[in-house]
TrEMBL record:
Keywords assigned by UniProt, alphabetized: Cell membrane, Lipoprotein, Membrane, Palmitate, Signal
Organism this protein belongs to: Undibacterium nitidum
Family in the record: Belongs to the EcnA/EcnB lipoprotein family.
GO biological process: response to toxic substance
Protein's UniProt name: Entericidin A/B family lipoprotein
Signal peptide location: 1-18
GO cellular component entries: membrane
Length: 40
């Protein structure tokens, strides 16, 4: 039972990291768009 709970927590932690990474990519893309618009 403990192993199942531990594995579930590890899976949730890894999923959260991937979500945060994806969010960071989105923020970077928005920043690039704003920067490009500012140069025009």
């Amino acid at each position: 039972m403990k192993k199942t709970i531990l594995m579930l927590c590890a899976l949730l932690a890894l999923t959260a990291c991937n979500t945060i990474q994806g969010f960071g990519k989105d923020v970077k893309k928005v920043g690039e768009v704003v920067e490009t618009a500012g140069k025009k």
